[in-house]
Design a protein that fits this description.
The protein is mainly alpha-helical. Helices cover 64% and strands 3% of the residues. The strands form two sheets. A five-stranded parallel sheet has the order 2-3-4-1-5, with helices on both faces. Strands 6-7 form a two-stranded antiparallel ribbon. This is ATP-binding protein. It holds the Pfam family AAA_16. Keywords: ATP-binding, Nucleotide-binding. InterPro entries: AAA_16, P-loop_NTPase, TPR-like_helical_dom_sf, TPR_rpt.
Length: 894
Amino acid sequence: MTQVRPTAAASASLWERDEEVAAVERAVDSLCADRSSSGGLLVFRGEAGLGKTALLAETRRIAEARGCTVWSARGGETLRSVPFNVVRQLLQPALVSMLPEEAREYLGDWYDIAGPALGIAEPGDRQADPQGVCDGLVAAVRRLARRDWPLVLLIDDAHWADQETLHWLAGLAERLDEMSVLVVVTRRPEEVSGASARHLDTVAAAAHGPATTLSALTPAATAGLTRATLGEHADAAFCREVWAVTAGNPYDAVELLARVQDSELEPVEARAGELRDLNRSARGGGLVARLEELGIDATRFAWAAAILGTGISIDLVAKLATLRPDDARRCAELLRTARILTAPDPATGRSADGDLEFVHPLIATAVYNSIPDALRTAMHGIAARIVADEGHGAAAAARHLLEVHPDDDEELVGQLREAAREHLAVGAPDAARRCLERALKEPPRAESHPQVLYELAEATFLTAPARTIGHLRAALGMPGLHGGQRVDAVFRLSQALLHNDQLEEAVRTVEAEAARLQPGPDRMRLQAAQFMWEGLHAGEAASPGRSQRLADLARPCTGRDNSERALLILRGFDALMHGENAEEVAELCDRALVNGRLAPGFGWTDTEWGIELLLMLANAYGFTDRLDRAETLYNEALRAYETAGWSGGHLALAHAYVGIGHRRRGRLKEAEASLREALRLAERVGRGLPLYWSATCSLVDTLLARGQVEQAWEVAERHGFAPPYPSTIVLPDPRSVRGRLLLAVGRTKDGINELEAAEKAAAARGHHNPVLVPWAADLARALRTEDPARAARLAVDVRRQAERFGTDTAIGEALRCAADLETGQRAVRLYGQAVTYLEASPCQYEHAAARIEFGIAARSAADLHRGLDLAVSCGADGLAERARAALRAGVGPA
């Protein structure tokens, strides 16, 4: 918690800040009004020295006067590479003050996820999900806000905050309506770019009102400040020169006036010409010159403090500056007197973190930049060793190691690799990337070079697939990766190619490597990967003979190891897509399980195979009417990702498929809720990805089933659910769902065209499962008046394919389609047969639809009432209204 409490001089920086202070008072009063009040966010922008820090000090004073708990932190220009630096300053003291058991109980399930990032818990042995860590930190604030209400968080110099903190701050800003906490942020404009700038833009967009831009002081305000500091006798010409020299910058004005007092300069026009020289000594070269006047020891002390940047203790500085303890204490006092360093305010709770801090970031920057380049580099190297010797770990030392010149030092490479592992374990892959990229510049020795590239690919895998591809290709082109590690690198390369929309190259990569290997588990793993990527491809045509090759390879597999289990799953999914017998599909999947459970190494958070294979397994059960087993797998995935803190694409897909399970079961309201949550999470990962399509497509399908056509269209329009379609398979088939949507909104011709496009795409891939790719039934219904002969042929094909597949749902839906094309008793008979099959199906929405259609055709009030009850329990409002309308009309044909 960095000091922001105003001194008498600093408070002068509040001149002409009445509007900003009033905004702070309103925000604090709103926070304190009620424990249930929603949070607030204020953002103040301004160039260096315009009084941002002083405004936060006044915010602290106002908030504490009203009984608020206030925590604060500050970004540092030389500390941006330290992950979670600012959020740790902010939250760590409150959690460290608790007993370990109390902190664990307080954070609950988030302790193991957010605790390592905050430095209060040991990291796990696997890579943490950055989004999960971010969500855990948001949850920590939510819980602390309940304990410490009313809570105010102050973040100074957010433009210098580390990227991980800014990610958290953006997430917090979007969730402030859910917690009673006030956040006040200051930043400079135009100081950051890339991801950090995007996070700060998100924060600004969430603020209550536009960000306030601080302006320089007017001549009148500068005159008032001058007279308040020097006395009312300061004449007008002198005051005007103070304004001219400082350009109305409050920090410069305060420092200049302090120099005037130190020099006992008379504030009269005759002495005004001396102000420029005094001003130059307050910052930049003048500050450096003033520092040198204090002596070489004080200069070395200040340099060492600037190198450390944070946690500036006199003992550490003495070691780095090679000063005796007595000399170090004397230098510290000199620098405090010269207003270069100051003691942290004990009220912030951070006095144990260091004895000193710079009075202002401008001073810290000027001192750091004044260190000769070669000496600065050498001091960072010494600082790294000192930090490591103090037991702070490789990650803490890495900030300094990043600044050391490359020198073919294998020990330094090892330290950076260890730091990268620590960064990955707490959810900071970007920090890990910086360490490993620096390690490559050393460079590593030949035997470790491919290992560094492989580890770098791990750091960039989630955020930069194109970079990952380059790193892995380079690693695989060198000697050094052998056996299972080489196979894993090839598999990871194929995954990165897939995520980079280079699916065909992903297939060729694993195919070529598999051809080099002898028969065995490694080769089988890569063969399975090839079939997996080919099976996910939604291109124009399947590779010739693929299904037969897969069937031949899987036929002798008994599921004795995970490579064989993978092939069995892939064969089962392929058979599902082609509409082969559902019993055989389920039998293949059963052989891939161990006692009905996922085998060790096949868990949802295991990285050896990835999520795609397990989703194929779950979907094979889900669309063969084995919904109990499918929903068990879907929910296991959801629990696994929530427990592990994986809040990105994996959790989005888990929610999407839980929603699909609800949709298949006929729980449409629950399906809609899960799919909307999936879509919310998917938007954080990025539009256009397969997971985004899965959530959008299933939500549109669910809303159509509910009879909410306008909402379905609005979702489709807002989320871009239209051609071109992704290159990977999406379930249910997006062309079929969009075709049904177009028919529902009255765009019949467009709907028919879309369904015919679905027909061509399915034929090219050999996807003949009428449950997964249901274009034919909807097209038959659309053509029953325009082209009844073609509609009849389509209905016959649907029934033939459904009977080949063999599930009650498929056959019942095919009979419904046939009945929709008939009239009279033939329609009644077909609807009755559909009811018989769908009553035995786990898909209650389809059963409700068939029961209502039969009730209308057979003029059966009993069936209409039963169908109405089913429709209501499903949340199928459109079906329910149709049943009610028929009952009101006296039960007759629609």
